[in-house]
Amino acid sequence: KEKISREVECEDRPERAEPLSDTEREIVQDTWGHVYKNCEDVGVSVLIRFFVNFPSAKQYFSQFQHLEDPEEMARSSQLRQHACRVMNAINSVVENLHDPEKVSSVLALVGKAHAIKHKVEPVYFKILSSVMLEVFSEDFPEFFTAEVQMVWTKLMGAVYWHVTGAYTEVGWLQVSSSAV
């Protein structure tokens, strides 16, 4: 049974996201090139695994929340569109790693939309990040070595930091409970 904590720990939040070094930025950009060539298929694989392993995440998607079967999910045009949006957002981050202001503004928009419009619990971003890394590592094992995975984990930590910052900014209530 799936258990998800619904808290954004303000006091545990570092003051800033740890920046990537130049070498780490290059590693991310090089490996992302391989992933992004197959953007839609990889994105769909990520979302299917996310929804199969964390079915409560489907509650935010009226268009495909009723789908149980991974093959049905793969055929959903709405799921495919959302997969592309997710991958394009990551692409904007990766393309702009040299420009922290741009990265910050891209992720602030994503965070605010999910907090205000979609009312998505922020912990799902953390879960989605780890599902992405799993899928990238399995689909591209020759590029996602242990070192590369560590760099991507650092990047995803920064993404989560920026997104949760946007949640805090819009006054997201810290509710302590768990989803079933």
From TrEMBL:
Keywords: Cytoplasm, Heme, Iron, Metal-binding, Nucleus, Oxidoreductase, Oxygen transport, Transport
Cellular component terms per the entry's GO annotation: cytoplasm; nucleus
Entry's localization field: Cytoplasm; Nucleus
One Pfam family this sequence matches: Globin
Region: Disordered, residue numbers: 1-20
Protein family (similarity comment): Belongs to the globin family.
Subunit details: Monomeric.
Protein name: superoxide dismutase
Organism encoding this protein: Maylandia zebra
Higher taxonomy: Eukaryota, Metazoa, Chordata, Craniata, Vertebrata
